[in-house]
Amino acid sequence: MSLDSLSWRQALVIGVAQSMALIPGASRSGVTMTAALFCNMSKSDAGKFSFLLSIPIILASGLLKGLELFNDPEVSVEWLELLYGATVSAAVALFCIHWFLAFIERIGFLPFVIYRIVLGASLFLLYLL
């Protein structure tokens, strides 16, 4: 199934799965890509949709933090430098997303899954010690 034929129910399932990222240590992109794969999306479309879902979250959090900075009289902000930093950050993020989508198309999700399992097990063991 392609991104163009995604139904609203499938999008809702993927969006609800995204809420699991509220659990500390859960990967938002991992959860949404896994849910998209369970909805029979292709690997590349699952990755694209996952990253598209992140846009509103990133914009909203940036706006919220920007309003907090604007309304705090004790903080001096160089708005031009902040805008420059955000622009460079967005450009680098787009490059990384493009690279990651090409990577999962070529190799698949297995290295990412192994990384998350090893990291989760390590953090769990660290917590127990």
Query: What is the first-to-last residue Cα distance?
Result: 45 Å
| Helical/strand content category | mainly alpha
Uncertain regions spanning at least 5 consecutive residues: none
- Percent strand equals under 5%
**Which outline best applies?**
globular
Mean pLDDT, all residues: 87
Radius of gyration: 18 Å
**Helical content, roughly?**
over 70%
The count of DSSP E runs of length 2 or more, i.e. the number of strands, is 0
| SSE arrangement, N to C | HHHHH
| Overall domain count | 1
Structure description:
The chain has 129 residues and is mainly alpha-helical. It has one domain. It is built from five helices and no strands. It has helices at 8-18, 28-38, 43-71, 79-106, 110-128. Helix 1 packs antiparallel against helix 2, helix 2 (28-38) packs antiparallel against helix 3 (43-71) and helix 3 packs antiparallel against helix 4 (79-106). The mean pLDDT is 87.
Please provide a brief summary of the model.
This protein is mainly alpha-helical and 129 residues long. Helices cover 76% and strands 0% of the residues. It has helices spanning 8-18, 28-38, 43-71, 79-106, 110-128.
Secondary structure layout plus pairing:
Elements: H1 8-18, H2 28-38, H3 43-71, H4 79-106, H5 110-128
